[in-house]
Task: structure prediction
Amino acid sequence: MNHDALVAEMRTLRDQVVGVTDTAVAAVDGLLIAADTEDAIDPNGLAALAAASLGLARRIAAAALRGPLRRTVTCSSGGYTAVYAVGETAILVVVGDEGMNVPQLHVEARSAVERIGAILLAPEPEPEPGPGAVPAPESAYDPEGVLG
Result:
């Protein structure tokens, strides 16, 4: 996973939607993967609670027989918190002020969730060798015992 690409995607969502103030990506078990939050927000606590809320919302959606859950939105006196499923293994948490454009968030988050899912599944990019780097020697792995 490319952490820089993940954070860039989270910041892009913040820039695209009026009122978005904070974002985080976590595993469905609540383990924080990345956060772009202000200092007043505990990103680990936010991730854990968001994962729990999404788990409950998935159970409610299943009980209501209305198909798989896509998102859950909490509206409070100071704004909104939206939690989106990123496949079956991760979540995207979006926090916004009372002026957040929630309909626009839902539109933009749909493609952001797809891109975040792809980033999470992609292997970590290999570091490029620096100047003067010496190539690694050929492997001496010899399962047949031919070399010695």
Notes: Helices lie at 3-16, 43-63, 102-121. Residues 65 and 88 are 18 Å apart (CA to CA). The mean pLDDT is 89. The chain is about 35% helix and 25% strand.
